[in-house]
Amino acid sequence: MNEGVEWALHSCLNLAWIGGERAVTAARLAAYHELPAAYLNKQLQALSRAGIVSSVSGPKGGFRLARPLDRITLMDVVTAIEGPEEAFRCTEIRRQGPGAAPAGPDAPRCAIAGAMGKAELAWRRALADQTLDDVRERAEAQAPGAPDRIRRWFAGM
Amino acid sequence: MNEGVEWALHSCLNLAWIGGERAVTAARLAAYHELPAAYLNKQLQALSRAGIVSSVSGPKGGFRLARPLDRITLMDVVTAIEGPEEAFRCTEIRRQGPGAAPAGPDAPRCAIAGAMGKAELAWRRALADQTLDDVRERAEAQAPGAPDRIRRWFAGM
DNA sequence: GCAGCACTACTCGGATATGAAGTGTCCGAGTACTAAAGG
DNA sequence: CCTTTAGTACTCGGACACTTCATATCCGAGTAGTGCTGC
């Protein structure tokens, strides 16, 4: 899985803790975790295209969350970064070679693809059932001082 | 996800339909679906290392299932081909940069990694709950003639 | 005729090329602020 | 003093290199069969 997913998730949480009144530049978000700024910018662009964050150009520009955390699921972020295609893609090799199934275009779905798809559906469902707000809540329970520390760093610099 | 997973799953089912009295070469299995033989051989080697199939060198050599289908789960095959590492790997970026959490080595798990891990666990559980025998059963229900066709092709050539 | 043995043919196994995709970087398009100039 | 306007600095957005991993291939190690040789 793409490493940008992790960066995007952390950045979204950071954006939420900072507060939405002011846009935050990709360079700031990157500096906070010592990430390559231009590449994080690329990931944030993907989030922007997916409507998860909104972007503003120019001075005082940057990114901010497009909607509250409880309306952003993990699935949204993963899809925005990784793309919508399934991890297991059936190439229908049963139709190739001397053993090609003679069935027509209305053939039932490949049983293997069905089984793998069932597992992937469970994964997607688990991702869609968790919002970023759930994650934030657990993170704050683990580190109550984090939100203030983050807000202060982004405000002070 | 690696394309070899699909090939490995189909090959395992084919091996089961052929029957275990005779080993089948990688070239034969590949020809049946017009796959590159040497590369399929590589995937079968991975299955062999995982103990899913057993391999025999030399003339009359080849591969055969090491245990019945109902003792092989989808998880086994995926792990054999893709490796045991998780798809989402947390790089602990929360520890990097000016906002590094000051916690010691006994810090709780990153909330983001926990949430992603929960989804991945659902995926792995769904894979582990399905055996290749379940898949075979469904495949035969869809295409009752397939087993005989496969057995005949591999025997006749 | 039979046992032993060297040889050949065949297959797996891992080491070796190739290509695509993820990773990282750079420059142009666009915008808000600044400041100077004119009325 | 206020308005207008040109300029400037800053940021996103997409186009351009580089690195890593999946894909594909090839050759050596090892084995079973085969046929020949010698007894």
From TrEMBL, chains A, B:
Q: Which GO terms describe its molecular function?
A: DNA-binding transcription factor activity
Name residues in a coiled coil. none
Which cellular component, as a GO term, is one annotated location?
cytosol
Q: Name one Pfam family in it.
A: Rrf2
Q: Where are the transmembrane segments?
A: none
- Matches recorded under InterPro entries: TR_Rrf2-type_CS, Tscrpt_reg_Rrf2, WH-like_DNA-bd_sf, WH_DNA-bd_sf
PANTHER family linked to this entry? TRANSCRIPTIONAL REGULATOR-RELATED, WINGED HELIX-TURN-HELIX TRANSCRIPTIONAL REGULATOR, RRF2 FAMILY
NCBIfam families recorded for this chain? rrf2_super
What is the name listed in the Swiss-Prot or TrEMBL entry for this protein? Transcriptional regulator
What organism does the UniProt record list as the source?
A: Streptomyces purpureus
**What does the record give as the organism's lineage?**
Bacteria, Bacillati, Actinomycetota, Actinomycetes, Kitasatosporales
